[in-house]
Amino acid sequence: MDAREFFQKVVVPRYTKFVRRRRSRPLPRPLPCPICKSPAQELDRTGDATGFDCPMHGKFKVANTIVAEECNRRRWEAALRKAKLRANPWEVPLVMSGDLFW
């Protein structure tokens, strides 16, 4: 088997399988909003944050380092207000642990 035949039979099929897998992205899945528990659309991931598009609270991100099952709705809404005040007008607000617990 010469180099051209090897390339056409081995390299090209493996490369096309890899390219097809990379291009297929999963569709956004509905997640429960951490504030009101209503179904929210997941935004694209950016770094260490999960983005939500809630019909009631709008678009916002929550840092993945937050473990806040014991937080109530009032505390979540206060944290979202803090994050909106801190964010620039063109940015999606990011709720961090400091917003929830301080």
Give your account of this protein's structure.
The protein has 102 residues and is an alpha+beta fold. It has one domain (29-101). The chain is 39% helix and 21% strand. It has helices at residues 3-23, 73-86, 97-101; strands spanning 30-32, 39-42, 49-54, 58-63, 94-95. Strands 1-2-3-4-5 form a 5-stranded mixed sheet. The radius of gyration is 21 Å and the shape is elongated. The chain starts with a helix and ends with a helix. The mean pLDDT is 80.
Q: What portion of residues belong to β-strands? A: 15-25%
Summarize the biggest pleated sheet.
5 strands, mixed
Distance between the termini: 68 Å
Question: Which term fits the overall shape?
Answer: elongated
Taking all Cα atoms into account, the compactness measure Rg is 21 Å
Number of helices: 3
Secondary-structure class = alpha+beta
Number of domains: 1
The run of helices and strands is HEEEEHEH
Q: Helical content, roughly?
A: 25-40%
Number of strands: 5
Oligomer: single chain
Average predicted local confidence, pLDDT = 80
- Given as residue ranges, the uncertain stretches (5+ residues, pLDDT < 50) are none
SSE layout and pairing:
Blueprint: H1 3-23, E1 30-32, E2 39-42, E3 49-54, E4 58-63, H2 73-86, E5 94-95, H3 97-101
Parallel strand pairs: 4-5
Antiparallel strand pairs: 1-2, 2-3, 3-4
Structure characteristics:
102 residues; five-stranded mixed β-sheet; elongated
